[in-house]
């Protein structure tokens, strides 16, 4: 059977998809608020028809309509000033997006030029390391520098990861402010024809504080991921690319000669050669040494710093696939991921819709009944629990906020 | 010890607090509550609009900020003078009152659509920036202290805690050979703390240190916070005004005025016509024949030849050609003379009845008194497509290829265009690159004056406005004349 045939999908929506949890996560409260009722949901139907501007009053209605339409997947958009389903009846000026989670999308394709294990749509445990590095950096930056607390990381179903930030302030950001966040966090820039893609310094001075903070964890990741795991500088193309990033022509020439002669030097050895050459050719505390040190730091950033799909984050009204949807090609469920466990995450072990339904059949065969929240009997449970816990944190904050305003009486 | 001048200044600044408007800078949070006449209502707004329109056109021309500042200040001097507090002989309150009234009237005029609001905010913010930039440090200090901007000064303890990060920001700007970066907290510049959402532009450029959602803004970027504050206040107020505006409908005296003001801004106008930089001379009716042969782009040349042949042009032809001539520096008197002579088959009575009003209208002397600019290539190419008897439009687009070739040869053969050039021009036209074709003709016809292929109308730029074509052509001629003169002078000099 196809990983996501209509019958499978219908069973998945009816018995497994955690509509209640999604509702609580979007709504921040138990009783429906505008955060949910004015929220756009866009369905992609089996026939590839795209249905925009749906909205629902309750989680039950949401579930009912989803089962009726039986889409392959659906996306979550912004909270509008009016209910999206009423779009045609309100004045265009009275229908504007006002709130939206701050979202980020990291996709493996942006790493194709540097990963050595797979290409295109494929992903394996090895290249997940790039995603891991990105999560470490982004998670820390958003928590420490921007002060956000409610971050939900979600596997995108194939080769990437999404992040949803639900803090009050983040929900209310304007497009302009979203653009600033993205540009602030974008360090690797430039197309195929540009070799040096990290240009964030003013002259040859130190990195800006935010990038400096990101660099520290990346130094270790660079050595594990780029030098050992991916062995990025093993192939001729790989190390040629590295030499293009070295500003000192003498050093580059010397290394080229050496690496051409000894073909099977590993990436680690080549990186050591490079560091050795820098020590040899430049003296401590000279501008030349500083320049080379900066160049090496920039190389580390270029190979490990998160590469985001910036357009997704810049506009409030961008739609992003909802958590727990099923990826139509892989059949995998888009499950939340604990950022602390990101390095242990294996995309190949994510439950698929087929596996979940088999588990469910086995479980119901025992008890003989079909109930709501059947996901509790499957390996989906820990993931739904994760979303529930996350939503509880959000709801807690809203409750405390309300309490505080009441106290002012 | 104060020098006597400093003493005087201290004294004056104290005095300034007696003013109703103690600062040159204003966030416009208090509307004027006095009675004003309808005339004042309109004139204050129009004067301010002239300044804002100049700012808008500076954006359209991609002027750098410094140039924009000079131009805007000159325009302010003319229409909206603002003396600083040290100018005790000037009625500062009256000047500032006018500033405030103008601002609030324009709010009423520009709150009605999203597009108008956006443009108004942009222009107003720029005006504010220009003035802020032009204020003395003490004026800025007074202004900043006069109100709460919601920032907290970063204290010594925090500076010590984040010393390395703050220091990294401090040294960003200093050139490497300049004094060494501060080595201790004492010498670190001042920092202010605000929520990062208030300074998104600084965050974007990594000019601030971010911690827990707070942006640590160095002193030299402090102005950014003020600008952001100005912008967000104005945006909010405009939306509020828009909601309240329907209640104003009862006042029949004000609505037409407001309508006119916003129309003027939309047409990208009401700055009074001034000759384009460098031309500096008016043209007269009797010069037009010669100018058209030497300097006009094909569209205008064609209109002129038609006018000479038929002694008449249809409405859109008159409009396109008339505005072009106006932009070239033809005054209203000369224009009336030119058109009167050209329409030789008509009696004075017919002319005055049927055409005079239109000509005066295009000079902003009738009707809603908008000062229309000359039509750009884009307008000529896309709007008011010529009908079967019309001669306006862009020949490269609106002529059939055969007619285009014949016309090109008959118009420009005397300036060096040959049949050998035609295939290239026709190919460009067929690809839809009308302005490229026009630019190529410019290059060919000015080859004798030293314009090379690819140079366009200077620096590789292509023609986007017929007036630009003509102005550049005249400039080239004038430069040539002057250089010849110089040579002659130089020779004479050598001999003596």
Question: What's the helix count of chain B?
Answer: 22
Q: Share of helix among residues of chain B?
A: 55-70%
The CATH topology of the largest domain in chain A corresponds to: DNA primase, PRIM domain
Tell me the name of the CATH class of the largest domain in chain A.
Answer: Alpha Beta
> Kindly state the mean pLDDT of chain B as a whole number?
81
Q: What sort of overall outline of chain A do the alpha carbons produce when their principal axes are compared? A: globular
The chain pair forming the largest interface, with residue counts per chain, is:
A-B, 26 and 24 residues
Helix content of chain A: 40-55%
| Radius of gyration of chain A using CA atoms only | 24 Å
What structural class do the secondary elements of chain B suggest? mainly alpha
Class from helix and strand fractions of chain A: alpha+beta
Largest β sheet strand count, sense and barrel closure of chain B = 4 strands, antiparallel
The portion of residues forming beta strands of chain A comes to 5-15%
| Known CATH architecture of the largest domain in chain A | Alpha-Beta Complex
């Amino acid at each position: 059977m196809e990983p996501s045939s209509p019958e499978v999908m219908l069973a998945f929506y009816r018995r497994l998809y955690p509509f209640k949890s999604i509702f609580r996560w979007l709504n921040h409260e138990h009783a429906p608020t505008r955060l949910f009722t004015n929220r756009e949901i866009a369905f992609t139907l089996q026939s590839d028809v795209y249905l925009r501007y749906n909205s629902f009053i309750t989680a039950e209605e949401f579930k009912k309509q989803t089962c009726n339409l039986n889409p392959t997947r659906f996306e979550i958009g912004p909270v509008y000033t009016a209910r999206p389903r009423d779009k045609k009846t309100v004045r265009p000026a009275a229908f504007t997006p006002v709130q939206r989670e701050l979202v980020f999308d990291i996709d493996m394709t942006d790493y194709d030029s540097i990963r050595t294990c797979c290409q295109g749509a494929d992903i394996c445990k090895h290249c997940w390391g790039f995603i891991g590095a990105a999560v470490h950096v982004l998670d820390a930056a958003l928590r420490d520098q921007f002060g956000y607390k409610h971050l939900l990381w979600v596997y995108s179903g194939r080769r990437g990861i999404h992040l949803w930030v639900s803090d009050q302030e983040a929900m209310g950001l304007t497009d302009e402010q979203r653009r600033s966040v993205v540009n602030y966090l974008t360090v690797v820039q430039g197309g195929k024809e540009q070799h040096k893609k990290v240009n964030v310094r003013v002259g040859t001075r130190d990195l800006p504080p935010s990038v400096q903070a990101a660099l520290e964890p990346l130094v270790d990741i660079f050595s594990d991921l780029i030098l050992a795991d991916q062995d990025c500088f093993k192939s001729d193309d790989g190390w040629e690319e590295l030499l293009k990033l070295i500003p000192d022509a003498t050093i580059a020439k010397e290394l080229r000669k050496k690496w051409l002669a000894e073909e099977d030097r590993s990436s680690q050895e080549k990186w050591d050669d490079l560091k050795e050459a820098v020590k040899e050719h430049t003296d401590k505390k000279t501008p030349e040494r500083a320049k080379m040190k900066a160049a090496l730091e920039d190389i580390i950033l270029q190979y490990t710093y998160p590469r985001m799909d910036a357009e997704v984050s810049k506009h409030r009204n961008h739609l992003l696939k909802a958590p727990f949807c099923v990826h139509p090609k892989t059949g995998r469920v888009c499950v939340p991921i604990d950022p602390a466990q990101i390095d242990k995450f294996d995309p190949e072990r994510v439950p698929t819709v087929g596996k979940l339904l088999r588990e469910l059949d086995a479980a119901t065969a025992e008890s003989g009944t079909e109930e709501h929240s059947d996901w509790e009997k499957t390996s989906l449970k820990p993931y739904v629990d994760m979303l529930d816990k996350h939503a509880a944190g959000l709801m807690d904050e809203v409750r405390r906020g309300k309490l505080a305003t009441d106290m002012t009486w | 010890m104060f020098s006597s001048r400093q003493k005087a200044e201290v004294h004056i600044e104290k005095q300034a607090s007696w003013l109703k408007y103690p600062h040159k800078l204003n966030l416009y949070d208090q509307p004027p509550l006095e009675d004003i006449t309808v005339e004042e209502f309109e004139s204050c707004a129009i004067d301010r609009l002239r300044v804002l329109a100049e700012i808008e056109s500076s954006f359209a021309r991609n002027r750098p900020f410094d140039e924009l500042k000079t131009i805007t200040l000159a325009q302010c001097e003319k229409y909206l003078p603002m003396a600083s507090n040290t100018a005790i002989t000037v009625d500062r309150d009256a000047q500032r009152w006018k500033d405030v009234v103008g601002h609030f009237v324009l709010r009423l005029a520009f709150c009605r659509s999203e597009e108008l609001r956006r443009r108004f905010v942009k222009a107003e913010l720029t005006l504010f920036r220009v003035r802020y930039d032009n204020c003395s440090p003490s004026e800025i200090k007074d202004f900043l202290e006069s109100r709460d901007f919601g920032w907290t000064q970063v204290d010594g303890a925090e500076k010590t805690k984040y010393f390395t990060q703050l220091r990294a920001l401090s040294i960003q700007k200093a050139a490497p050979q300049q004094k060494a970066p501060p080595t201790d907290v004492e010498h670190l510049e001042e920092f202010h703390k605000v929520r990062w959402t208030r300074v998104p532009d600084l965050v974007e450029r990594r000019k601030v240190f971010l911690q827990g959602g707070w942006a640590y803004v160095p002193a030299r970027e402090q102005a950014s916070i003020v600008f952001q504050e100005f912008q967000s206040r104005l945006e909010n107020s405009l939306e509020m005004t828009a909601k309240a505006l329907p209640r104003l409908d009862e006042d029949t005296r004000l609505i037409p005025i407001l309508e006119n003001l916003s129309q003027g801004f939309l047409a990208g106008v009401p700055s009074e016509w001034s000759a384009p930089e460098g031309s500096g001379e008016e043209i007269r009716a009797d010069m037009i024949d010669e100018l058209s042969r030497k300097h006009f782009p094909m569209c205008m040349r064609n209109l002129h030849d038609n006018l000479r042949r038929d002694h008449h042009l249809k409405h859109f032809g008159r409009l396109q050609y008339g505005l072009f001539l106006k932009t070239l520096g033809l005054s209203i008197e000369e224009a009336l003379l030119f058109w009167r002579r050209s329409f030789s088959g008509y009696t004075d009575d017919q002319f005055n009845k049927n055409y005079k009003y239109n000509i005066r209208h295009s000079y902003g002397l009738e009707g809603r008194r908008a000062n229309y600019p000359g039509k750009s290539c884009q307008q000529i190419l896309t709007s008011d497509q010529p009908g079967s008897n019309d001669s306006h439009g862009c020949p490269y687009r609106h002529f059939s290829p055969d007619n285009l070739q014949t016309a090109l040869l008959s118009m420009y053969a005397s300036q060096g265009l040959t049949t050998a050039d035609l295939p290239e021009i026709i190919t460009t036209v067929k690809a839809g690159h009308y302005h490229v074709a026009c630019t190529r003709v410019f290059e060919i016809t000015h080859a004798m004056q030293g314009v090379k292929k690819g140079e366009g109308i200077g620096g590789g730029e292509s023609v986007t406005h017929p007036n630009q074509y003509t102005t550049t052509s005249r400039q080239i001629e004038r430069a040539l004349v002057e250089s010849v003169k110089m040579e002659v002078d130089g020779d004479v000099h050598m001999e003596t």
